[in-house]
Amino acid sequence: MARLNVLNLFGRRTHEGAAARNLSAELQLRRSVLACLLWERQFYEDGVEIAGRIAELVPKVSVDKVAALAVEAREAMKLRHAPLLLVREMARHKTHRALVSETLVRVIQRADELAEFVAIYWKDGRAPLSSQVKKGLAAAFPKFDEYQLAKYNRAGPIKLRDVLFLCHAKPRDQKQAKVWRRLVEGKLTSPDTWEVALSVGADKRKAWERLLREKKLGALALLRNLRNMREAQVDESLVLTALEQVSTARVLPFRFLAAARYAPQWEQALEQAMLKCVAGTEKLPGKTIVLVDVSGSMTAPLSHRSEMQRTDAAYGLAVLLREIAEKVAVYSFSDNLVRVPSRRGFALRDAIDASQPHNGTLLGKAVEELNRTEKRDRLIVISDEQAHDKVVAPKGKGYLINVASYKNGVGYGKWTHIDGWSEAVIHYIHALEQTAWVN
Question: What is the mean pLDDT of residues 164-177?
Fold first, then answer.
């Protein structure tokens, strides 16, 4: 998940002017990948710039570490496009090609990622797929059944049948061979998804209610469509039952916060579903101080098509930390350091957001004050690392969780730096302390 670093300062600066740290190529690659929605513009950097930096760094990092990072980004951080880009860049370099096929099989976990990878491979112009890429695609293709292939067999320049022809995958058995023949002929059985159900002109309320009764909505589809269900006046009991039964295995915490913004009547059920992911997690012992960045750059959307903000990621992690720490105090920082009232769940989100105006990023000032006033076992900062001032070392254990992909940041030196916004970063802190890696 992260590395412990004590590095010298060499004059790099964040976008807001604070001194940043010179990093190894491996650490630069990690911070560029693990909080990255690929090609999306962020508050300070263009998405194309971030993708270019990833491409530049891949050959500078050993192949085993790049491959492990791609798997981590997909499986722990639940990112989709950044891992595909990593594998594509591995395929460009002779030193990295040996692990392309096995890494590609690991990171392709949805059928549409087969075509998306080829689109990334051809982004700069069509070129023959390398033998390792063909091998990886051919090994990944049989993972998907007819429903999955039909669901993601979307219109576009590159279709799933094109990928099948390109990689020459072999079916496991005759049943799968028949499915692939139907894919080639365009005769796959139409999947019973919400998109299909609503596209045929069915009554929206009846369509949603049928899909809910038959449990045909995945977690993300459910969360993304709560507003649509509310507007269609869907039976509330069906929605509540679905939220009670939703699987949180691949859902990032901030998605529940974003869903609640547009479907507040189901906030309690959303909160309970979100907290499922920490149920049974062993507590962080002692006292934890959580310091959340509420500066202006944190209110930027996670992507140009998304209504979710970077603060959703930060608040979601703060809510989870509140649940797994034995004793906890939550603060916000922007121009000032503000103690947040003791709240849980979504009430804590509201309290953090309303704690002070979303202005500057005086992280150094906040840490200095906490060093003077708060006795604790650990300090956990959640930020995009774009501070105005010099960031001092924490007293004792200090973690900085970075929720952005900017080139330079401040969370190094005596800090334990962690990139990403998944709940996996919290599990990492616990594991790190259990192995006594932190002094």
Answer: 96
Kindly write down the DSSP assignment for every residue of 226-288, as one continuous string.
HHHHHHTT--HHHHHHHHHH---TT--HHHHHHHHHH-GGGHHHHHHHHHGGGTTPPPEEEEE
Per-residue pLDDT of 275-304, as tens digits, reads 887 676 778 899 999 999 999 888 766 655
Q: Which letter, b or e, does each residue of 79-104 get, where b requires 16 or more Cβ atoms within 10 Å of its Cβ? A: bbbbbbbbbbbbbeeeebbebbbebb
Distance CA 348, CA 218 (A): 27
CA–CA separation, 80 vs 167, rounded Å?
21
Residues 17-40: b if buried by 16+ CB within 10 A, e if exposed: ebbbbebeeebbbbbbbbbbbbbb
- Containing H/E element for 32? helix 25-33
Tracing tokens 């070129």 back to the chain, one arrives at: 127
325's enclosing H/E stretch is strand 325-333
d(CA 237, CA 226): 13
With CA atoms as reference, report the closest residue to 411 among 381, 379, 431, 371. Answer: 381
Question: CA-CA distance, 46 to 203, in Å (whole number)?
Answer: 41
Residue 435: what pLDDT? 58
pLDDT digits (tens, 9 = 90+) for 205-235: 999 999 999 998 989 899 989 999 999 999 9
- Bigger pLDDT: 296 vs 87: 87
Q: Tokens 């503000």 identify what position? A: 338
Closest CA relative to residue 252, chosen from 424, 36, 60, 25 = 424
Strand order across the 284-293 sheet: 2-4, 416-419, 397-402, 378-383, 284-293, 325-333, 337-339
Say how many C-beta atoms besides its own lie within 10 A of residue 174's C-beta.
Answer: 8
Domains of the chain (ranges; CATH) run 36-76+79-151+154-185 (no CATH), 198-276 (no CATH), 280-434 (3.40.50.410)
Burial class (CB in 10 A: 0-12, 13-18, 19+), 45: middle
